[in-house]
Amino acid sequence: MNPMGYSSLTEGNHREDVTREDLIRDYFYGGYTNLEICGILLLRHEIVISIRHLKRILAMMGLRRRMLQNTVEASYAIMEELNGSGSSLGCRGLQRRLLSHGLVVSRLGVPRCIRSDEGTENCIIADIQRAFRWYHDDDMAGEKSFLTGSSPSNQRIERWWLSNKQGGGQFWIEFFSNLEHMGKFSTSDHVQLECLRFCFTKLVQDDLNRCAQEWNQHRIRHTKSAELPGGKPDLMYYLPELYGK
Length: 245
What we know:
This is Integrase core domain-containing protein. By secondary structure, the protein is mainly α. The protein has 9 helices and 4 strands, in the order αααβααββαβααα.
């Protein structure tokens, strides 16, 4: 796993003690492509290297994203995440999280549930989703695997709150709730509340920072009707030159 932890363009990486190799390692584990890393180094840090040179540096540093030949290595990494705040991540979120373990895992499987508005353009998606989930035996199988609702409920901020919960927020909500239900913590006790804040504030903040960074490093797909261009939010904001802006 990345020994330096997560980083992003929002942190700047402008400290004097950060070397070129540190930057490359940081952006590599951030999920950036070789071309994007070269662009970031040039435009953000004024470091000029070619993609071929970058590949040599990555090889010397032992950095490579391994396409799995078996599932054992991925299983250990997934279990590590599921035993912590990564337990609420969805398939795509977990796939991005595995990049920090140096693992590239293809997305497989079917979503447990899809929610959309009642537009006619979603009828085919509904039929496909229900067909794939028809013979599953969980509580969201079959007809329940596709839900419809009004468009006002599908705002971007709602999607962000979902990502926030999946990225670690839900884990901490349930963790503190369980402490209270077991009688080990009371929100009415000021001393206990301050002790809890003292012990857990940094841990919670670290997960919130990682969630925000993973969001800023995820790739938005290009669509013809979208008002915004596709790409990674960090790159679009800090390096608009890469998008011709």
